[in-house]
TrEMBL record:
Residues 35-57 are annotated as: Disordered. This is Uncharacterized protein. InterPro entries: DUF6233 (IPR046200). It holds the Pfam family DUF6233.
Length: 115
């Protein structure tokens, strides 16, 4: 390292020490902020709700609980009691003449539109 400092730095030790202290405090602040944000991301990942199932089957309220309608997993009309199912199970239900939801259109998503 050369003996002379570039122009933006003060020439005396006292001001250089002050500058070093300031930069050390700033570095500590940056590291603290990064650690805090990493903790926040970790907490958000742990507490995030699970992803909804891809499809849901709504069942009737009678004793038989027969399938009534197929919904996308994110459809609000499915209700709480609608069981999450795989795309294959949703296809089978639609092929078995279970009605598709007219709002979320799972039959369109599955490529089962009747033409």
């Amino acid at each position: 390292m050369s003996e002379s400092l570039p122009p933006p730095y003060p020439p005396d030790d006292e001001r250089l020490a002050d500058l070093e202290t300031y930069l050390t405090v700033q570095l500590m602040y940056v590291r603290s902020q990064r650690a805090s944000r990493a903790r926040q991301r970790e907490i958000q990942q742990r507490t995030a709700p699970p992803a909804p199932p891809p499809y849901r089957i709504q069942r009737s309220l009678d004793a038989g609980r027969t399938p009534v309608r197929v919904h996308l997993g994110t459809c609000v009309l499915a209700g709480r009691g609608a069981a999450g199912v795989s795309p294959e199970a949703a296809r089978q239900a639609l092929a078995g003449h279970v009605e598709a939801c007219a709002v979320c259109r799972p039959d369109t998503e599955l490529g089962m539109i009747e033409g």
